[in-house]
Amino acid sequence: MDPVTPPVTDPTALPAVDALAPYDAVLLYSFGGPNAPEDVLPFLRNVTAGKNIPDERLAEVAEHYHHFGGRSPINDQNLALQAALRAELDRRGLTTPVVWGNRNWEPYTTQALAEARALGAERVLAVVTSAYSSYSGCRQYRENLWASLEELGSQDAATDGGAPLVVDKVRSYFNHPGFVAANVDAVVEAYGRLQAEHPDAAWPRLLFVTHSIPDTMEEASVVAGASYREQHLDVGRSVAAAAAERLGRPLEWDLVYCSRSGPPSQPWLEPDVNDHLRALHAAGTTSVVLSPIGFVSDHMEVAFDLDTEALETAQELGMVAVRAASVGTREPFVRGLVDLLLERAAVQRALDAGAEPPAEATVGALPPFRSVCVPGCCRQRAGVDSGIPAACSTDPWS
Ligand SMILES: CC1=C(CCC(=O)O)c2cc3nc(cc4[nH]c(cc5[nH]c(cc1n2)c(C)c5CCC(=O)O)c(CCC(=O)O)c4C)C(CCC(=O)O)=C3C
Ligand SMILES: [Fe+2]
C-alpha cells in the first residue's frame, strides 16, 4: 500500500489559534482605594480587617487620604492600565476581555469575577498589580480570589449550570524584562531631570524604594524562591547596571523602605527612606534619585510617603532629590505584561498536555518565579498555616 500522503494545508486557511487559550478572560487584580472622603474609613476597615494595625496608625493613614481630598489616585491608574492592556491586546489581534477588580474597594473581586462570568469566561487569567512575591503581593490576593470563587459557588460546580470558573495567575514579574526596562527608562529620565533642574548638583545616589513588610512576612516569603528583599535587590542590581550604562557613569545605590505600619514593637524591614536620607546626609551625600521599584503606579504610598514625606525630609536636609516615575502605563511594562499573559497561557497549555513548558523570560540572577504557587508559598509567618485556602496553587485544597 502506498503511504498515506498528508493533505497539504494552507496555514492561513486554518482558524487562528487563540494565543491566550485556555484563558477566555483576563483579570487585572489590584489593591483598590477610596474615591471620595466618605470611602476612606470603610476602605481602611477593609484593608485592616483581622490585621494588627494600631488605631493611631489608621488615623494617620486616613489623614494621608484626606490630604488628597479623600481620593486615592490608584483607581484611575488601574483604569488607565486596563485601557493600555486592552489596546496592546487589540494591537496583537486578541479580543479576550480584560476585567478589573480590587481586594479592598469597588469593583470588588467578586464583582469582577461575576463580570468575567457574564462575558462567558470559564478560565480567567489574573495579573496582580504587585510585581513581588510575599504574603501582601501574592498569597493575600490568592486568598481573596478563593473566597470570591466560593461566594460565586465556583469551586466545585458552577451554580449557573456552566463549567466551574477557574482562576490562574501570572508569576511574580519583578524580574521580567518589561518591568525592569520600564524602571530603567524612568531612572534615566529622573537623572536627566535632576541634572536639568540642578546643574550644579553632585552626581546623585540612587535609592530604590519599596513597601516595608514585617520581618516575619519577609522570612516566610523565601519559600517562593528568594525572599521579598532579595527579589528587590535583584531588580536593583539589574536597573542600576542598565541605567549606569545608559548614563555613562557608575551608580551607587541602596534599597530602602516606606509605609511601615503595625505596632512599634514589631520589627519591619529597614531602613526607612527618611532615616536613610538623614544617614546619607550625615555622611555627606547631597543629591539623590528615588526610584519606587516596589510599586507599579504612583498611588497613595508614592504620592504621600515619597512625594510628600520623603521629598520634604530631603528638602529639610538641604538635599537635592527627584523621584523617578513608577512603571504605570509605560510601553515596555504594558508590552511586557501582555508577553507575560501569552507566556502564562503557553505554560498552561503545556501543563494541561503534560508537555515541556516554554522558556520564561527573565533578567537578573534569579530564576522565573513559579506560575503555580507551591504549598506554603508566601505565608504571613514561616511554617504557620493560617488554614485560609488560596487559589492558584498546588495547596491541597486547590
Ligand atoms: C508589600 C505591600 C504592597 C506592595 C504590593 C502591592 O501593591 O500589593 C502594598 C501596597 C499597597 N498598600 C496600600 C494601602 C495600605 N496598605 C496598608 C497596610 C499594609 N500594606 C502592607 C504591604 C504592602 N502594601 C502590609 C504588610 C500592611 C500591613 C497590614 C497587612 O498585612 O495588610 C494599609 C493600612 C494602613 C497602614 O498601615 O498603612 C493601607 C491603607 C495601597 C493602596 C494605596 C492607595 O490607596 O493608593 C497599596 C497599593
Ligand atoms: Fe506565592
Describe the protein's architecture and organization.
The chain is an alpha/beta fold. It has two domains: 25-173 and 331-353, 3-Layer(aba) Sandwich (Rossmann fold), CATH 3.40.50.1400; 177-323, Rossmann fold (3-Layer(aba) Sandwich). Helix content is 41%, strand content 11%. The chain has eleven helices and eight strands. Strands 2-1-3-4 form a four-stranded parallel β-sheet, with helices on both faces. Strands 6-5-7-8 form a four-stranded parallel β-sheet, sandwiched between helices. α10 (300-316) links the parallel β7 (287-291) and β8 (320-323). The longest helix has 23 residues, at 331-353. It is globular. It starts with 24 loop residues before the first strand and ends in a 45-residue tail after the last helix. Residues 1-7 and 11-15 have low confidence and may be disordered. Fe (ii) ion is lined by residues 133, 138-139, 224, 373, 377-378. Its main location: cytoplasm. It catalyses: Fe-coproporphyrin III + 2 H(+) = coproporphyrin III + Fe(2+). Pathway: Porphyrin-containing compound metabolism; protoheme biosynthesis.
